[in-house]
Amino acid sequence: MLISYLPILVYLIISIGLAVLIVALSEALGKKTHTAVKDLPYECGMVPISDARHRYAVKFYVITMFFLVFDIEAIFLYPWGVIFKPLGLFGLIEMGVFILILMVGLAYVWGKGALEWE
Amino acid sequence: MTISIPSITLSNIGPLLTLTVAGLLLLLMDALTPKGKKGYFPYLSLIALVIAAVQTTMLWNRSGTDFARMIYVDNFAFFFYLIFLLATGLTILISIKYLEDYHRNLEEYYTLLIFATIGMMLMAAGGHLILIFLGLEILSIAIYILAGLFREDVKSNEAALKYLILGAFSSAFLLFGMAMLYGATGSLFLDDLAQAIKAGVGTNPLLLFGMGLLIVGFGFKVSSVPFHMWTPDVYEGAPTSVTAFMSVGTKAAAFAALVRIFFLVFPEIKMEWNMLLWGLAVATMTLGNVVAIAQTNIKRMLAYSSIAHAGYLLVALVAANQLGAISFLYYLVAYTLMNLGAFAIVILVARKKDDYINIYDYCGLGFQYPALAAAMSVFMFALAGIPPTAGFVGKFYVFSAAVEAGYIWLAIIGVMNSLISVFYYLRITVLMYMRPAEADLGPVTMTPAISSAVLVTAAGVLAIGVFPGPLYELALNSVKIFVGL
């Protein structure tokens, strides 16, 4: 029974082996030159302007979290839209409850002033 | 395309709905009311908890499943509902003053406690592994935030981060185990799993692997050795009221799910798991008790003591007979009362901002505050398992269940561990009554809320210790669902 999974194992071994082989070969065969510019951290081809270890304002994280929450709400709305008719009134009420709960969350973050940037 | 919509009875999840509405309402009110006018929030949460408890008692003796078999509606779940509601209510009572001292009496605290309670209830009632997992996550996410409530405190941050990372690990183990069980049986409903195992997937390696991973996942949550590493640091760093809640609530919830899964799904293959849990139980009891001796920080001591108590509860799980299941429920009630009581005293003695959480700060407490010291002694006696307290009766049931099931050695090791534990519990009592105070530590401020919590827990510990009968009957009534035992 387990033999039927053998191709997966072979595939895994080949893919890992290939990755290791390519890195090892370029390490072994490649010519290495170090210049000051080359050793800079890569920043989209630009010359880096400062240290990368900044402290970001927590607002960015907060906004990201809001985005995730409401994005997931939107994702839940799609399947409901697809089967809106068969679900009928029951589905409408259930989704209403779901959106209501998320709206409470929105009212909360709004009331707490988390949506103000300054 | 037609979709058959399952018939649902909303009253079956009445307590959960009440708490959900209460939690959402608190959130809304928090956002809409101006600062400084929110002192009544804890009492509002308490009212919601009481309503949920009343609803639970009204549901008592209903049986079956609901929401397309997702939820078990039975006395076992209801019994746990009541334990959770009691734990949350007592936690709220001991938190009010404590959070005010820290200027952290955020209203979200109560909302999060209520949401955590909902998660625990789902874990106790879940009839589908994914629902149990969802309950666990609802509970855990609330607790991650609560553990980091004191944002300026490095230790609180450490606690929250540690708990988050290890909690995420344990969730992954749990989910992976569930996936294995699905692979072995093709279903995630506990009923279907039980039937598939009866029909003879018995020793399928996938099934055993999945079961092992479930033990690892829940082992983290109940802090059983060797998955206990996070416990002392998290319990020490988290706000004391949250520690109290975690040590009781999370543990009870994880055990509720563990017991239901093991007694409902896996009794047929008991041979495969009883020695494993035997080892876990012995390791958990022994390590918890032995390391607790060396602790001088009372929160760390109680953390190791809670590990040891998880070990005693595992003994009941290993016994896997009816008395084992009953002793389980009884012990959890007793543990909830005595541990929350002990933490209430820790909060009181610590005074402002956790200044005094060393065990030597308890010196001479018996002369300064006789009532406080008496209550602490009751809790220490109970945790050590000395009659006539609930701790004794609980341990008596647990070890008799082990003997009845033929695990004589397990019972002997358990009793020996109780003896070890007597040392560090009674050390507190000795310090309180037989040593003079080392310095004047300032007055202990008692508020009605925390005094009533101490009173309720102390009275409860003694009451169910002296009259275990009614609670025993209630527990017996609750475990009848496990026909395989």
What does this protein look like?
With about 120 residues, chain A is an all-alpha fold. Chain A has a domain at about 60-110: NADH:ubiquinone/plastoquinone oxidoreductase, chain 3 (Methane Monooxygenase Hydroxylase, Chain G, domain 1). Chain A has helices spanning about 5-30, 60-80, 85-110. The N and C termini of chain A lie far apart (about 60 Å). Chain B is built from 19 helices and two strands. Chain B is mostly helical and about 475 residues long. Chain B has helices spanning about 15-30, 40-60, 75-100, 105-125, 130-145, 155-185, 190-200, 205-220, 230-235, 240-265, 270-295, 300-320, 320-350, 365-370, 370-385, 390-405, 410-435, 450-465, 470-480, and strands at about 65, 70. In chain B, strands 1-2 form a two-stranded antiparallel sheet. Chain B has one domain. In chain B, a hairpin with a 4-residue loop joins strand 1 and strand 2. The longest helix of chain B is centred in the middle third of the chain and has 32 residues, at about 155-185. The model of chain B has no long low-confidence stretch (mean pLDDT about 90). In chain B, helix 13 runs antiparallel to helix 15. The interface between A and B is small, with 13 and 10 residues.
